[in-house]
Amino acid sequence: MKNILVTGAAGFIGSAFARYMVNTYPHYNIIVFDKLTYAGNLNNLTPIDDEPNYRFVRGDIADRDAVRRTLAEYQIDTVVNFAAESHVDRSILQPDAFIHTDVVGVYIMLDESKKHGVGRFLQVSTDEVYGDVESGYSVETDTFLPNSPYAASKAGGELMVRAYHVTHGMDTVITRGSNTFGPYQYPEKLLPLFITEALDDKPLPLYGDGLQVRDWLYVEDHVTGVDAVLHRGESGEAYNVAGENELHNIDVVKQMLALVGKPESLIKHVPDREGHDRRYAMNCDKLRAIGWERRYNFPDALAETVRWYHDNEWWWREIKTGDYLDYFKQQYAARLSADAD
Ligand code: NAD
Ligand code: TYD
After folding, report:
1. Which of 4, 37, 73, 183 is deepest in the core (most CB within 10 A)?
2. Whose CA is nearest to atom 8 of ligand 2?
3. How many angstroms separate the alpha carbon of residue 19 from the centre of ligand 2?
4. CATH number, position 209
5. Ligand sitting nearest the alpha carbon of 61
């Protein structure tokens, strides 16, 4: 392993992974390949801009020629694919881009990686492929029951990874992360949206009763989970990366508000998300068995996250303009003026 292509690393988790890899493994070259969609942001990579083992290439993972050229030019031997459309609510409004990137893009990456002779291919996936988990914990061999177009597109990408392993003998591994939070997360997901809205004393649109359960994982722990699987995962296998920290949405929001120093009266129950999964929860013994352990606890990581958004308004105020406002209006205007179901 020497020249690692990290796709989608101008986004939230991929950029944390790129920053971590560049600093942790100076003998690896980290080549970031990203389309710079609305969610991609070169500001996420400025901390490593001047590092000699980092390069940035703008490109689409579904663009076969661009992928082929990049694999050849940088003599890529390893691929870590973070690139995705990643927001459930946008997949309900407009699923096309999800099929383009999360299904077709994964296929193009696999196909060109095979032709180029890439060694290890790591696909970053999600707990959402398991669907709603009423009780117990998802294990890696569970059936996929995705419920949103986002989850279905990620499941489709994963199945293609499996097929290239079985059919073509490619060295593939998969990670399935749980709900991730931390600095540099685009302010459309629950925590960064609500922190930045709360800082401005705006109402916080909590879907339905707010009793849905998510398993919260700090981004730095997600990144070391991906690293563990990249270096020590068994070929053809998938690994859950869990926070083992289940909370009701409403409790997450109340903890956040206490840290921001704003009243709970900002919470506004609004009509629910369509097809909203009640609970995700995964077992991650398999990942622990290859030597991974979490280093962050939720209260400290949440406090650090709130502090980061408080101190880095320059980062998110620039994002919350233009097209972002159109999306916000489409997703929330009617909800915020309606009564909850
Ligand atoms: P993000 O939306 O913040 O970033 C996605 C990045 O991919 C952006 O930089 C975007 O420009 C890039 N991209 C999108 N389409 C592309 C294309 N066609 N070609 C090249 N680049 C493209 O996403 P994130 O939250 O950092 O998630 C990263 C990965 O982790 C995704 O695969 C997601 O499914 C997975 N994941 C996310 C979470 C979470 O809670 N955020 C949890 C588990 C798994
Ligand atoms: P989100 O951050 O979109 O992640 P995911 O849907 O992938 O789990 O949402 C986390 C939870 O918060 C989910 O149950 C939906 C809920 N939520 C709200 O209640 N209001 C919102 O405005 C958003 C974006 C999410």
Report:
1. 4
2. 179
3. 26
4. 3.90.25.10
5. 1
